[in-house]
C-alpha cells in the first residue's frame, strides 16, 4: 500500500467567500441546520465511486485538522474578519459524524448534514480532495509538462493584451481555482507564476492560504449558498434576496461589496436590487448566462437608478478562459470597472478533461432550497415542487 498523502493540510486552503459567509451566518443565523450534497455533472474517464476508500481516509484526516495560530493571526489582519469569529475558528474542528461518503450505481455520493456553521466549510475541501484523488490516477509528469506549456502561452497572451492601447478601466484577473484544481501543488505553482510574470493584470486569488503565503490579495465575497439559506429562514420567500443582502450590509458595513446575481436569475435579482442596495454595494458578480447580456443589463439598471456605472464593478466568474475574459473586457472596459475570476482554465488545464463537480446546499432547517441559474443545466434543486413554486413566486419562465 502506498503511504497516505493528505490532500488538505491546512484549513486555510479554502476560498475566501467560505469564511465571509461563515462569519455572517454564525453571527446572524447560528441555529440553522443544513444539508449539502456532492454532484458530478459530467462523465469522468472512470467511475468516481472507485475513489470511495481514499475519500473516506481523506475525510478522516480532514477532521483532525485545526487552524494554526499563524493562520488565525492572518485572518485577524483582514479588517472585515471579527475577533469573535477568529475565536470560534480557534475552537473549530470538523466532526466526522456530519459527513458521509458512499458508492451508488458507480456514482460517488457525499452528503454533509448538521449545524450549518459546522458543515458549510466541508464543500471546497471535499471538491479539492475528489479532484486531486481523481487526477492522481494520471501521468503526473506529463500533465505538468502540458500545464506549464499552456501556462506560458496564457502569460504571453496576457502580455500581448498589456501592449494594447490603455482603456478607461484596466484588465484585472484573479485565480478562482481551488475547487477544480489538478492539485494543491499545481495551483500554488500557477498562482506564483502568474503573480511573478504579469502582476499588472493578475491581482489576487480566492485561496486564502496562497494569499497569505504569497503576499497576494484574497478575493471573494458571497456564493449561492448564502442567499439560498435565506429561502428557509422564515422570511417571505419573495423577500429572501432582500433579507440576505440586508444582513450582509449590516455584517460588513461597506466591506465585501460585490453581490451575486444569479440565485433566481438576473432579472429577478435586479427587481430586488433597488437604489438602496445599488448604492451600498460596490458591484455585481455574474456566474451564469450570457456575460455580455448580463453586463448590459447591469449597466442599464445602474443608469436607470441614476448611478454612474463607472463607479461600480462588474465581476465575471462563469467558466472563463483568458480569451473569453478579454472579449468581455473589451465590451465593457470604457463603461465600467471589470474583474475576472478564472478557475479551471488556470488550475486544471493540463491535458485531461476536468470533472465538473459541485457540492451544493440542498436544504436548510428541513426545507428545500434551490438555485435557478441563467444557464440551462446549472439549476440546482432536490425538490422539483419547491423549484416550481420558486419560479412562480419570482415569475421565472422555464428554460428551453
TrEMBL record:
<dbReference type="GO" id="GO:0016757">
    <property type="term" value="F:glycosyltransferase activity"/>
</dbReference>
<dbReference type="GO" id="GO:0004516">
    <property type="term" value="F:nicotinate phosphoribosyltransferase activity"/>
</dbReference>
<dbReference type="Pfam" id="PF17767">
    <property type="entry name" value="NAPRTase_N"/>
</dbReference>
<keyword id="KW-0597">Phosphoprotein</keyword>
<protein>
    <recommendedName>
        <fullName>Nicotinate phosphoribosyltransferase</fullName>
        <ecNumber>6.3.4.21</ecNumber>
    </recommendedName>
</protein>
<dbReference type="Pfam" id="PF04095">
    <property type="entry name" value="NAPRTase"/>
</dbReference>
<dbReference type="GO" id="GO:0034355">
    <property type="term" value="P:NAD+ biosynthetic process via the salvage pathway"/>
</dbReference>
<keyword id="KW-0328">Glycosyltransferase</keyword>
<feature type="domain" description="Nicotinate phosphoribosyltransferase N-terminal">
    <location>
        <begin position="12"/>
        <end position="131"/>
    </location>
</feature>
<dbReference type="InterPro" id="IPR006406">
    <property type="entry name" value="Nic_PRibTrfase"/>
</dbReference>
<dbReference type="InterPro" id="IPR007229">
    <property type="entry name" value="Nic_PRibTrfase-Fam"/>
</dbReference>
<keyword id="KW-0808">Transferase</keyword>
<feature type="modified residue" description="Phosphohistidine; by autocatalysis">
    <location>
        <position position="224"/>
    </location>
</feature>
<comment type="function">
    <text>Catalyzes the synthesis of beta-nicotinate D-ribonucleotide from nicotinate and 5-phospho-D-ribose 1-phosphate at the expense of ATP.</text>
</comment>
<dbReference type="InterPro" id="IPR036068">
    <property type="entry name" value="Nicotinate_pribotase-like_C"/>
</dbReference>
<comment type="pathway">
    <text>Cofactor biosynthesis; NAD(+) biosynthesis; nicotinate D-ribonucleotide from nicotinate: step 1/1.</text>
</comment>
<keyword id="KW-0436">Ligase</keyword>
<dbReference type="GO" id="GO:0005829">
    <property type="term" value="C:cytosol"/>
</dbReference>
<comment type="similarity">
    <text>Belongs to the NAPRTase family.</text>
</comment>
<dbReference type="InterPro" id="IPR041525">
    <property type="entry name" value="N/Namide_PRibTrfase"/>
</dbReference>
<dbReference type="InterPro" id="IPR040727">
    <property type="entry name" value="NAPRTase_N"/>
</dbReference>
<keyword id="KW-0662">Pyridine nucleotide biosynthesis</keyword>
<feature type="domain" description="Nicotinate/nicotinamide phosphoribosyltransferase">
    <location>
        <begin position="172"/>
        <end position="396"/>
    </location>
</feature>
Amino acid at each position: 500500500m502506498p503511504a497516505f498523502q493528505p490532500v488538505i493540510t491546512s484549513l486555510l486552503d479554502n476560498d475566501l467567500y467560505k469564511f465571509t459567509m461563515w462569519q455572517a451566518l454564525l453571527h446572524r443565523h447560528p441555529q440553522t441546520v443544513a444539508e449539502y450534497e456532492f454532484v458530478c455533472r459530467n462523465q469522468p474517464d472512470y467511475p468516481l465511486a472507485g475513489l470511495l476508500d481514499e475519500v473516506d481516509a481523506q475525510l478522516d484526516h480532514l477532521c483532525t485538522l485545526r487552524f494554526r495560530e499563524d493562520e488565525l493571526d492572518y485572518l485577524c489582519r483582514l479588517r472585515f474578519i471579527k475577533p469573535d469569529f477568529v475565536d470560534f475558528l480557534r475552537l473549530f474542528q470538523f466532526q466526522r459524524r456530519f459527513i458521509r461518503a458512499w458508492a451508488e450505481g458507480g456514482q460517488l455520493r457525499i452528503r454533509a448534514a448538521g449545524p450549518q456553521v459546522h458543515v458549510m466549510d466541508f464543500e471546497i475541501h471535499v471538491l479539492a480532495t475528489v479532484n486531486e484523488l481523481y487526477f492522481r490516477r494520471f501521468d503526473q509528469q506529463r500533465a505538468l509538462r502540458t500545464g506549464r506549456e499552456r501556462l506560458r502561452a496564457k502569460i504571453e497572451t496576457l502580455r500581448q493584451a498589456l501592449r494594447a492601447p490603455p482603456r478607461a478601466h484596466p484588465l484585472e484577473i484573479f485565480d478562482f481555482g481551488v475547487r477544480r484544481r489538478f492539485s494543491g501543488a499545481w495551483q500554488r505553482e500557477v498562482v506564483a507564476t502568474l503573480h511573478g510574470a504579469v502582476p499588472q493584470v493578475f491581482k489576487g486569488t480566492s485561496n486564502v492560504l496562497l494569499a497569505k503565503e504569497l503576499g497576494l490579495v484574497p478575493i471573494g465575497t458571497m456564493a449561492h449558498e448564502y442567499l439560498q439559506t435565506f429561502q428557509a429562514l422564515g422570511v417571505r420567500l419573495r423577500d429572501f434576496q432582500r433579507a440576505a443582502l440586508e444582513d450582509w450590509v449590516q455584517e460588513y458595513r461597506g466591506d465585501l461589496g460585490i453581490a451575486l446575481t444569479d440565485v433566481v436569475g438576473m432579472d429577478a435579482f435586479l427587481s430586488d436590487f433597488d437604489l438602496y442596495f445599488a448604492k451600498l454595494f460596490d458591484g455585481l458578480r455574474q456566474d451564469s448566462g450570457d456575460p455580455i447580456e448580463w453586463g448590459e443589463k447591469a449597466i442599464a439598471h445602474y443608469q436607470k437608478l441614476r448611478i454612474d456605472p463607472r463607479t461600480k464593478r462588474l465581476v465575471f466568474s462563469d467558466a472563463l478562459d483568458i480569451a473569453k475574459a478579454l472579449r468581455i473586457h473589451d465590451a465593457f472596459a470604457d463603461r465600467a470597472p471589470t474583474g475576472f475570476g478564472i478557475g479551471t482554465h488556470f488550475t486544471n488545464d493540463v491535458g485531461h478533461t476536468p470533472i465538473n463537480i459541485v457540492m451544493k446546499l440542498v436544504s436548510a432547517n428541513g426545507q428545500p432550497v434551490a438555485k435557478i441559474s441563467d444557464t440551462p443545466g446549472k439549476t440546482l434543486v432536490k425538490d422539483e415542487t419547491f423549484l416550481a413554486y420558486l419560479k412562480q413566486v419570482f415569475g421565472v419562465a422555464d428554460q428551453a
